[in-house]
Design goal:
44% strand; 78 residues; alpha+beta; four-stranded antiparallel beta sheet; globular; 2 helices
């Protein structure tokens, strides 16, 4: 799994997508993202799709009512 995490991290860094953490939870790869909804959150889902992952759940950690927020994105291999 470490090699897969490295592949994901390298891919996201290549496209300058930054996130707080990446980990495995209940068989899902989870990205902890704190950023703009359009430029960070939606872009993360698109970039993960590029390498064969689908976002199956998003869990908002805080709702500030603004364009910026933190959420956990759960991905599975398609």
């Amino acid at each position: 799994m470490q090699a897969e995490f490295k592949r994901i991290i390298d891919h996201l860094k290549k496209y300058e997508l930054y996130f707080d953490d990446i980990y495995l939870l209940d068989g899902f790869i989870v990205l902890d993202i704190d950023g703009d909804w359009k430029h960070s959150h939606l872009r993360a889902d698109y970039l993960m799709q590029m390498i064969g992952y689908k976002c199956v759940r998003e869990e908002e950690m805080d709702d500030t009512g603004s364009d910026w927020g933190r959420s956990l994105h759960y991905y599975t291999k398609v």
